[in-house]
Write a sequence for this structure.
């Protein structure tokens, strides 16, 4: 009888070890009322190691089981980061949902600016090259601009401003590429319209040298030489380095000579 009881006790211990080893997450060891904080810390550690699924397990357990926890907001935001970090088509959809819910549930949070920035990054990470559809680029611009409007004094503002500039450049690159296509097929009126659209809607476009050169070239080939000259001149004035610089200088000299001769002939 004593042997049976001893064997039974051993089985109980072994069973506990096996069950503990089968658990997806090790049991939380924390003081009274600290399990939620422990879950957050473990999630953060997994997030730092880019263990996206494991991090989400900890954050989800906290959110599901501790509705009154003071760290729910942190877990909600970190859950979005765990989806964003995975960077798949499916995970980005979930990331967008988590950030939007955070901004809805915690609009006055001190980290609302971060959530808005990350919402922009969801779309930024999905931007395509300038020859393809720019829907995600437009969404990124919208979310980053919302950030700049709502949180202009945020420490994150310089970073968001840079991302906004990159997103606008991507969209303008697309418009310029369309203009270049029209220029190549000698549809000069359509090319001019596309270039002028970029000039009007994105005056800080980073690749203005290309824009100035091709707009001037389009005007020149449309026999609008007097209108073309100022754009070549702007290129030379605003850019110390550009692949178009030497050719622009050459054309400035030619156009000035032709315009002067035309004026003298009158």
């Amino acid at each position: 009888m004593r042997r049976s009881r001893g064997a039974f006790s051993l089985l109980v211990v072994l069973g506990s070890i096996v069950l503990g080893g089968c658990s997806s997450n090790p049991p939380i060891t924390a003081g009274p009322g600290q399990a939620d904080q422990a879950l957050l810390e473990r999630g953060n550690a997994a997030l730092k190691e880019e263990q996206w699924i494991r991090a989400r397990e900890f954050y989800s357990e906290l959110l599901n089981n501790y509705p009154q926890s003071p760290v729910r907001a942190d877990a909600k935001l970190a859950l979005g980061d765990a989806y964003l970090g995975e960077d798949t088509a499916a995970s980005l959809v979930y990331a967008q949902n988590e950030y939007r819910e955070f901004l809805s549930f915690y609009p006055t949070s001190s980290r609302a600016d971060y959530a808005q920035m990350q919402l922009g990054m969801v779309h930024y990470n999905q931007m395509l090259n300038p020859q393809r559809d720019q829907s995600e680029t437009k969404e990124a611009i919208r979310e980053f601009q919302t950030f700049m409007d709502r949180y202009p004094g945020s420490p994150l503002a310089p970073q968001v401003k840079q991302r906004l500039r990159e997103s606008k450049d991507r969209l303008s690159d697309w418009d310029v590429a369309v203009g270049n296509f029209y220029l190549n097929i000698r549809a000069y009126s359509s090319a001019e319209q596309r270039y002028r659209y970029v000039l009007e809607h994105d005056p800080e476009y980073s690749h203005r040298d290309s824009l100035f050169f091709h707009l001037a070239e389009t005007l020149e080939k449309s026999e609008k030489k007097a209108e073309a000259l100022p754009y070549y001149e702007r290129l030379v004035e605003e850019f110390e380095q550009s692949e178009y610089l030497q050719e622009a200088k050459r054309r400035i000299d030619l156009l000035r000579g032709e315009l002067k001769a035309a004026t003298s002939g009158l």
